[in-house]
Amino acid sequence: MLLALMTDLHANREAVSACLAHAQQQNVSRYVFLGDLIGYGADPGWVLQTVMDHVTQGSWAIMGNHDIAVLQEDRQNMNPVARQVVEWTRDQLNTDQLDFIRKLPYRIEWQDLLFVHANAWAPDKWEYIDGVMEAMRSMHATRAAITFCGHVHLPTLYHMTLTGKTGEFLPTPENSIPLSKQRRWLVIPGSAGQPRDGNPAACYATFDTETQDLTYFRVPYDHEAAAKKILDAGLPAALASRLLTGN
């Protein structure tokens, strides 16, 4: 089975549309949306409904911190920009979409794979995997051979040997990487909706459960149109600028 791993969609219709179209060309069998479906972008309703439609067809979706934020009434601990976006986003969603968010799981385990948004040791606490130490902690927290997660908007691959030695690898797009069963792996596909590595092209990855091959992709999209929508919606200009620069 060929899985498409997409995370941190962040209500970016143009990026999500481009990634879905690209994945369809790869003959993907199932989509896995690793959280933060909404937040930052100007099309939360469309993106969330698109994910909902895919879930009804057998795909999976995970809870992210931006997703759960729209359900929380107390937002005093948020910075003003984040609070503005969350409040605006909630007003764009209907009752069915809010109910869908409420039912999102924090983790899904399937065969020897684990899907989470932030990490394996505390999926609902939203701590980041910023380097090798955090990746090691996450891999030690699960029996799964391969963990797929988001939250960090940079495409990265971590691996751990049977003796516990852990390393970091920066993947090259479109180069297939065989994930040896002699190691544990932690896969961060990078953000589909808000890349932060200096490249505005959307990120996602595919994984073949039969061959164990992992492939990262960068998909160009109309980021200028997505940025203009953010400005037109009255959302913070910094969010539009981020799409233009990829930072």
Count the strands? 12
Order of helices and strands: EHEHEHHHEEHEEEEEEEHH
| Number of discrete domains | 1
What would the average pLDDT be, to the nearest integer? 95
Please report the first level of CATH classification, the CATH class. Alpha Beta
Q: In terms of per-residue confidence, which ranges show pLDDT below 50 for 5 or more consecutive residues?
A: none
How many individual helices? 8
Query: Structural class, from secondary structure content?
Result: alpha/beta
Global outline = globular
What name does the CATH topology carry? Purple Acid Phosphatase, chain A, domain 2
Cα Rg: 17 Å
Taking the sheet with the most strands, its summary is:
6 strands, mixed
CATH architecture: 4-Layer Sandwich
CATH fourth-tier homologous superfamily: Metallo-dependent phosphatases
Strands of the largest sheet, in order across it? 3-2-1-11-12-9
Q: What proportion strand? A: 15-25%
Description:
The chain has 247 residues and is α/β, with parallel strands linked by helices. It has one domain (2-245): 4-Layer Sandwich (Purple Acid Phosphatase, chain A, domain 2), CATH 3.60.21.10. Helix content is 32%, strand content 21%. It is built from eight helices and twelve strands. The protein has helices at 13-25, 44-56, 65-69, 80-92, 95-102, 132-140, 223-232, 237-245, and strands spanning 2-6, 30-33, 60-61, 107-110, 113-116, 146-148, 156-160, 166-169, 177-178, 184-188, 202-208, 213-219. Strands 3-2-1-11-12-9 form a six-stranded mixed sheet. Strand 7 and strand 8 (166-169) form a beta hairpin. Helix 7 packs antiparallel against helix 8 (237-245). The longest helix has 13 residues, at 13-25. It starts with a strand and ends with a helix. The model has no long low-confidence stretch (mean pLDDT 95). This is Metallophosphoesterase family protein. It holds the Pfam family Metallophos_2. One of its GO terms (molecular function) is phosphatase activity. Residues 1-211 form the Calcineurin-like phosphoesterase domain. Belongs to the metallophosphoesterase superfamily. YfcE family.
